[in-house]
Amino acid sequence: MSFTGKSVIVTGASSGIGAATGILFAEQGANVVIVGRNETKLNAVAQKLPKNAKSLILKADVTTDAKKIIDETVNKFGRIDILVNNAGFAKYGSLTDGKFLEAYDTIMATNVRAVAELTMLALPHLTKTKGNIINISSIAAMAVPLDGRFLAYSVSKAALDHFTRGAALEFASKGIRVNSVNPGPVATDFLDNMGVDISVDVIKEMTALKRVSTPEEIGELILYLAGDKAQGITGSIMLTDNGCLLK
Ligand SMILES: NC(=O)c1ccc[n+]([C@@H]2O[C@H](COP(=O)([O-])OP(=O)(O)OC[C@H]3O[C@@H](n4cnc5c(N)ncnc54)[C@H](OP(=O)(O)O)[C@@H]3O)[C@@H](O)[C@H]2O)c1
């Protein structure tokens, strides 16, 4: 699958799923925009890009710098073909511990509001290229969390899935596709960033296949959805969870 000459923005590409996805797109010839806030991690990803890759390493916060992300991409590459809204995080806060609203406000700003803002700003450019959008959601969107401290995160991803469907319907007449990839457990910095210490073995036991995914296998699905072979797929919520939801 070649993406030569296509311009791809990947938010949250300084680690995990976003980093793997940015590298995979670059390996397939895309001009990649690697967005994140942590400069050390951004530089580490830059080192892993193919030597001849056309890239823009962009230190930016999706909650405040959406316009900068779109403007700098267009200034550098002249077009936007694919927007991967991957930046996201979780934070504990339940209805009974009094921390729900604090978690809700910060999580929604990144996991949903920033996605909406980037989508609207990218729209004129995606209209020109008949491009597409992939939102990175989660199995958390589909199951009521057993641990109430995850409720705000689950609500954000459920909202994101509905946003994906609504945007897909609204943009279909423009030839723009919008899809979602919803992973189960993936080996990334996600839990570390939450300050949660759970062993990989415990997480594996939560899945039917007794495994966690690599960021690269999630990236491969993102590339498939972004490519022409997926021309008939829009508004889809693609689960890739090692059978977690079967249990
Ligand atoms: N790992 C899993 O098990 C799992 C499962 C289901 C869904 N997901 C979803 O997958 C996506 C990627 O997560 P991951 O697992 O790859 O975790 P990760 O390694 O923690 O990566 C999250 C990325 O998001 C970036 N980010 C967070 N807030 C940001 C902001 N305000 N502005 C710009 N960048 C921001 C982080 O970069 P900086 O810190 O540099 O800003 C980092 O690059 C998330 O949406 C997550 O909800 C993960």
Structural features, described:
With 247 residues, this protein is of the alpha/beta class. The chain has a single domain, classed as Rossmann fold, CATH 3.40.50.720. The chain has eight helices and seven strands, in the order βαβαβαβαβαβαααβ. A seven-stranded parallel beta sheet has the order 3-2-1-4-5-6-7, with helices on both faces. β1, α1 and β2 (31-36) form a beta-alpha-beta unit. α1 (16-27) packs across α8. The model has no long low-confidence stretch (mean pLDDT 98). Residues 11-18, 35-38, 41, 61-63, 86-89, 110, 136, 138, 183, 185-186, 188-190, 193 line the site of NADP nicotinamide-adenine-dinucleotide phosphate (NAP).
Main attributes of the structure:
247 residues, alpha/beta, Rossmann fold, 8 helices, 7 strands, 44% helix, 15% strand, globular, binds NADP nicotinamide-adenine-dinucleotide phosphate
What's the structural blueprint in terms of helices and strands?
Elements: E1 7-11, H1 16-27, E2 31-36, H2 39-48, E3 55-59, H3 66-77, E4 82-85, H4 100-129, E5 132-136, H5 151-171, E6 177-183, H6 190-194, H7 200-205, H8 215-226, E7 237-240
Parallel strand pairs: 1-2, 1-4, 2-3, 4-5, 5-6, 6-7
Helix pairs in contact: 1-8, 3-4, 4-5
The structure holds NADP nicotinamide-adenine-dinucleotide phosphate (NAP).
Please identify the structural class as seen in this structure.
Answer: alpha/beta
CATH class: Alpha Beta
CATH architecture: 3-Layer(aba) Sandwich
The overall pLDDT average reads 98
Described by the principal axes of the CA atoms, the overall outline is globular
Biggest sheet features: 7 strands, parallel
Number of helices: 8
By CATH, the topology is Rossmann fold
